[in-house]
Amino acid sequence: MGKNYIDIENDHGETLRYRKHVNGRGLVAHGAKVHPSALVENGAYVEPGVQIAAGVRVGRGAWIESDAVIGPEAHIEPHAHICAGAVIGAGAHIGVRTQVGHNARIAMGSLIGDDEIINDGEAVATDRRGLRLAA
């Protein structure tokens, strides 16, 4: 049986240890909290300080940076990038290759389409069709 972790050097020369999440085999850094019912697909990275709630699905190749918070039942599609400190509300859906900026906020139940960029610090709320709502 192979080892259940991998060590990776970051841009600052520090070695971070990632474990393979039991549900999906994605890589979860030491210090991240991922609910056992969440699916973190193989090839996804979850950095230290991240909190992922129950029922979340993180797609293959997605990257969730430090201190991001992902609410219950949210879906992060493949190759999405959730930057540091971002908050994704319960039931929100983040599209393929979409980037959510540093400290951005996505409201509960929002639908963010494929290939979108949410700017740093931006707060976004949409209806279930993906149409943005007034703040």
From TrEMBL:
The keyword Repeat applies. InterPro entries: Hexapep, Hexapep_transf_CS, Trans_hexapeptide_repeat, Trimer_LpxA-like_sf. It comes from Microbacterium testaceum (Aureobacterium testaceum). This is Transferase. The keyword Protein transport does not apply. Keywords: Repeat, Transferase. Pfam families: Hexapep. GO terms for molecular function: transferase activity.
